[in-house]
């Protein structure tokens, strides 16, 4: 008994989480290399400009930041939650004015010379720190409608600003993350049911708007967002009174929007049991899977094609190892703040993994949600590893 207690106190790192991280980063570097080297221009640019090389640099920086967070008591970090949250809001406002557009006209990045920073990724992290600190108050206070209203305000402010970029996928993950944290904190069920009903109503109105509303009554969604929803539900928006030329143009746009989804599904299905081999996937190598998104949004399709069912299950197993370890850490936390931080991190990662893999196999509409640690992207990698550092800090300071 005494020896067990001593071992628990001496164990400062949850090694199951570390194993999951190492596995995912190794797979990320290998398969981002496969996707990036498939580009026709890859052999004509400097090695240090290749995506997998830059991704490894981001991994190194992210690990350093995760270690720094791990060494810091999460309770000390939570004292700065208000500053962190409002700093993220300032960045979300700034990107609307000085942000850079990288396709589809969406302003999501702030350029710092050769590097781009995506404020919405940082805002997710700031949101869960702020929410965990706010909800860690005595449970009796959570029964007050005003406390629930304030928590909703903290959720809706970054939600609206991210929608304005526009980045619908990143905005939507805030809602289930916030609901999960409220549930874990002990917010009355009647409040959460009303919130869930409101979210469902909004989604229903968006779908009705996309498919049935006349143009003058439509919600101002971006055209590519509307097309993604139509592709997911298998419908098009050809007006009944459209001319032949107009009909052909709309049908072509619909087919173009559906192309990425179809090729991703073909990639996943063609991998078989053990895959075609590294850099031997025809969908990836021949460019059927669009090269602009193969290394980020559709990296799971690249992995599935080249490593097959075995590789896909390995990816899901590594994520499950981290997620279930995160739930265990939440159960061992020494206080409500630590439990809510762990629940927030697990919920956020689960939403990212579920949505991204879902869109690769056509279970969910296509969004710009990255697959944590596997998709190419510096800000996503840094924020994911910082979130894992928070998990490890909660574990390090857990109750004896």
Quickly describe the structure.
This protein has 400 residues and is mainly α.
What is the fold's blueprint, element by element?
Blueprint: H1 2-10, H2 15-37, H3 51-71, H4 74-78, H5 81-98, E1 100-101, E2 107-112, E3 115-117, H6 119-135, H7 145-163, H8 168-172, H9 174-185, H10 189-211, H11 223-233, H12 244-270, H13 282-285, H14 291-294, H15 299-332, H16 336-360, H17 378-396
Antiparallel strand pairs: 1-2, 2-3
Structure write-up:
With 400 residues, the protein is mostly helical. The chain has one domain. The protein is built from 17 helices and 3 strands. Strands 1-2-3 form a 3-stranded antiparallel beta sheet, covered by helices on one side. Helix 9 packs antiparallel against helix 10, helix 9 runs antiparallel to helix 16 and helix 16 runs antiparallel to helix 17. The longest helix is centred in the last third of the chain and has 34 residues.
Could you tell me the strand content as a percent range? under 5%
What's the overall geometry?
Answer: globular
pLDDT average, as an integer? 83
Count the DSSP helices: 17
Sheet with the most strands: spatial strand order? 1-2-3
Features of the shown structure:
400 residues, mainly alpha, 17 helices, 3 strands, 69% helix, 3% strand, disordered N terminus
